[in-house]
TrEMBL record:
Domain notes: The IMP cyclohydrolase activity resides in the N-terminal region.
Domain spans labelled MGS-like: 1-143
UniProt protein name: Bifunctional purine biosynthesis protein PurH
EC code: 2.1.2.3, 3.5.4.10
UniProt keyword annotations, A-Z: Hydrolase, Multifunctional enzyme, Purine biosynthesis, Transferase
Pathway: Purine metabolism; IMP biosynthesis via de novo pathway; IMP from 5-formamido-1-(5-phospho-D-ribosyl)imidazole-4-carboxamide: step 1/1; Purine metabolism; IMP biosynthesis via de novo pathway; 5-formamido-1-(5-phospho-D-ribosyl)imidazole-4-carboxamide from 5-amino-1-(5-phospho-D-ribosyl)imidazole-4-carboxamide (10-formyl THF route): step 1/1
Gene for this chain: purH
Length: 510
């Protein structure tokens, strides 16, 4: 038996090669691996003794040779294959242990150049791994040092490796090389910001197993990008509490996305991925109090995201109710002490919580496909806001309308948000028609609607929303506009003394 060993990550390779050697396996190896094995007293043949060709071009060509690939790919059950090997003086290679140039570690290094990254694209390694995995009936292929021990165990016990193991090792190789190539293409794509390619390849690494998915009978895992952007949820560090659940992570993403709309101290409370209360204030405690007041019922068991460090006073308030998660850029020591007394609360710290993540792609799975789009990075262009009514909104109304629009952008469509004095006072998410969203936002409010403002994620198809809003006490409305019946809504607003602003930007969210 012959084994070809060529590894960048040399963890465990000496013991593995030693054990193979003791089992009578002849070992072939490339430059650095050969050196390491020989230095450890293992008898090892250099790859050039097999290829009769020097390793060259700074290691770009070492194993790319018929003597290597023929020895791996020949089908042992085909006499003509074996005859061709014999005629060409090629010997079979039965075990292939390879791990690839550290492309991931290279691109994660701060300040890495494109040239350095490209030099770390492995060519010969994936070629051998794929040859061996294709011919796994005859070849044992190992791409992960974690598998050395079990392979040696099987060889010792059964004098060979079972078909089941060989198949699983081959599958692991194709998953590994596919992820490796996807990582390279993703890195190169990011260099030039190439959007929506003909073939979309992405690779994600398992971050953690989850106890279950959206429901207990669904299996689930949390995967993360190779290079999660600074300020992304995947970078959050859990400081306290039980393991995050699938729904926790999804809801935390909703809270974080909404929070990133705000620069002033803000708190967003989320339930089932919809904001249920958003408050802004001169400090984080006043922002939290406003977010809480918006809907003291729904915030219970919800997720709260804050864009300032949580201090003791805020922690004390927060600890009065049951919250699943608090996500913040940090916690003072005293705040941590207070919150850690609650064993069920999860505390997440994300340093760069306000950092905007623009220019990303948003992906939704449909059966048999994926829907991919740019992320909704725009709120509206301030200079393009158009007052369409006789009455012009006051500064206070404008401020509240900006807040309401930031929130309505992140609730499920059809969505309506009512706001007053720096906080939401009514949220109507996910309705199948717009008037129900208006009615929900009004009827579920804990506040007087008098002198509040209303934001709508899309245009009003009829003037009924204006009528309902005015009847409840709304004085100003912000909406995209663009309906064929805009004039009806404008006329109604004028009749009822309401100020209305068109943004020109729709924010559907499904
Ligand atoms: N070009 C080749 O023929 C080639 N053959 C094997 N490698 C890689 O060389 C590395 C091992 O190199 P060394 O044994 O010299 O430390 C492995 O990661 C292996 O995947 C190659 N390098 C990259 O393409």
């Amino acid at each position: 038996m012959r084994a070809l060993i060529s590894v960048s990550d040399k963890t465990g390779v000496v013991d593995f090669a030693k054990a193979l050697s003791e089992l009578g396996v002849e070992i072939i190896s490339t430059g650095g691996t050969h050196q390491r094995l020989a230095d450890n007293g293992i008898q090892v043949m250099g790859i050039s003794e097999v290829t009769h060709f020097p390793e060259c071009l700074d290691g770009r060509v070492k194993t790319l040779h018929p003597a290597v690939h023929g020895g791996i790919l020949a089908r042992r059950d085909r006499p003509e294959h074996m005859k061709q090997l014999e005629d060409n003086h090629i010997e079979t290679i039965d075990i292939v242990a390879i791990n690839l140039y550290p492309f991931k570690e290279t691109i994660l290094r701060p300040g890495v150049t494109l040239e350095e990254a490209i030099e770390n694209i492995d060519i010969g390694g994936p070629a051998m791994l794929r040859s061996a995995a294709k011919n796994h009936k005859d070849v044992v292929v190992v791409c992960d040092p974690a598998d050395y021990e079990s392979v040696i165990g099987e060889l010792k016990q059964n004098n060979g490796v079972s078909m089941d193991t060989k198949y699983k090792l081959a599958l692991k190789v194709f998953q590994h090389t596919a992820a490796y190539d996807a990582m390279i293409s993703e890195y190169l794509r990011r260099q030039i910001d190439a959007e929506l390619p003909d073939n979309l390849t992405m690779t994600f690494e398992k971050k953690q197993d989850l106890r279950y998915g959206e429901n207990p009978h669904q299996k689930a895992c949390y995967y993360q990008e190779i290079q999660p952007l600074e300020g992304s949820l995947a970078q959050a560090v859990q400081l306290h509490g039980k393991e995050l659940s699938f729904n926790n992570i999804h809801d935390a993403e909703g809270a974080l996305a909404t929070l990133k709309e705000f620069e002033q101290p803000a708190v967003v409370a989320v339930k089932h991925a919809n904001p249920c209360g958003v408050g802004t204030g001169f400090d984080i405690l006043s922002a939290y109090n406003k977010a809480y007041e918006c809907d003291p019922t729904s915030i219970f068991g919800g997720i709260v995201a804050a864009n300032r460090i949580i201090d003791a006073g805020t922690a004390r308030e927060m600890s009065k109710i049951f919250l699943e998660i608090i996500l913040a850029p940090g916690f003072t020591e005293e705040a941590l002490e207070i919150l850690e007394q609650k064993k069920n609360i999860r505390l997440l710290k994300l340093g760069s919580i306000t950092r905007k993540l623009e220019g990303q792609i948003d992906v939704k799975k449909v059966s048999g496909g994926l829907l991919v789009q740019n992320t909704d990075d725009l709120l509206f262009h301030e200079e393009e806001l158009k007052v369409v009514t006789d009455r012009i909104p006051t500064e206070r109304e404008m401020d509240d309308m900006r807040l309401a629009m930031k929130v309505v952008k992140h609730i499920k469509s059809n969505g309506i948000v009512l706001a007053k004095e720096g906080k939401t006072i009514g949220i109507g998410p996910g309705q199948v028609n717009r008037i129900w969203a208006v009615e929900n936002a009004i009827s579920q409010s804990n506040f007087s609607i008098q002198d509040s403002v209303l934001a709508s994620d899309a245009f009003f198809p009829f003037d009924d929303c204006v009528t309902a809003a005015a009847a409840a006490g709304v004085t100003a409305i912000i909406q995209p506009g663009g309906s064929v019946r805009d004039e009806d809504s404008i006329k109604k607003a004028n009749e009822l003394g309401i100020a209305m602003v068109f943004t020109g930007i729709r924010h559907f969210k499904h």
